[in-house]
Amino acid sequence: MCLYATIDTSVVNLSIMTWASGKQLQGGKYRIEQELGAGGFGITYCAKDNNGRYVVIKTLNEQVQRRPDFSKFQQDFLNEAIKLAKCTHSHIARIDEVIHEDGLWCIVMEYIDGENLAYRVENQGVLPEAEALRYIQQIGEALTLVHNHGLLHRDVKPQNIMLRANETEAVLISYQVKESPLAFLNNNGYHPLAKEMMDKACKSANL
């Protein structure tokens, strides 16, 4: 795993790209299965490793790749990945390794078999109180560990909380790199308090 690296911005010459199904990474170690989704800054893929195990691979999306300050985003993304790799917790998606492919830094993460909290509530209605409190405690423990490592999640919302299949266990996913203070306005009504507080140089928190 590459955990300590910097980007030489003088030699970065990146072609804008996304990866189609069948694309092989790291000399065939990973094979892209499908795109899972894209946000304001990242794009996430489902892939299989050469042992047939599903993983999630996240990198920066086309919009960010076109930015004149892309190299800074790359470095921020890499720095975040290095710190996140140290956040080992049962309620945080595990980072397997950080790789470099086609000029992009990528985070290879645990694939969570299950559904996100938003989908669960939309399809099954309000959670029983005991179950909701259990998930709140689990995600709270995860965020405490993240904050202790000097990180902010910046995007805590039901869509970014996975519920493991056949278990009452919530897992925090989908971290964001440093972004515009106004990015949360496109977040479908969810306002991670950490962004506003960070912009005001206040103590970090997540809502």
From TrEMBL:
UniProt keyword annotations, A-Z: ATP-binding, Kinase, Nucleotide-binding, Serine/threonine-protein kinase, Transferase
SMART domains: S_TKc (SM00220)
Pfam families for this protein: Pkinase
One GO MF term attached to the UniProt entry: protein serine/threonine kinase activity
Residues that hold ATP according to the record: K58
Gene3D superfamilies linked to this entry: Transferase(Phosphotransferase) domain 1
UniProt cross-references to InterPro entries, sorted A to Z: Kinase-like_dom_sf (IPR011009), Prot_kinase_dom (IPR000719), Protein_kinase_ATP_BS (IPR017441), Ser/Thr_kinase_AS (IPR008271)
The organism's place on the tree of life at top rank: Bacteria
Domain Protein kinase: start-end pairs: 30-207
Record-given protein name: Serine/threonine protein kinase
Source organism of this protein record: Tolypothrix tenuis PCC 7101
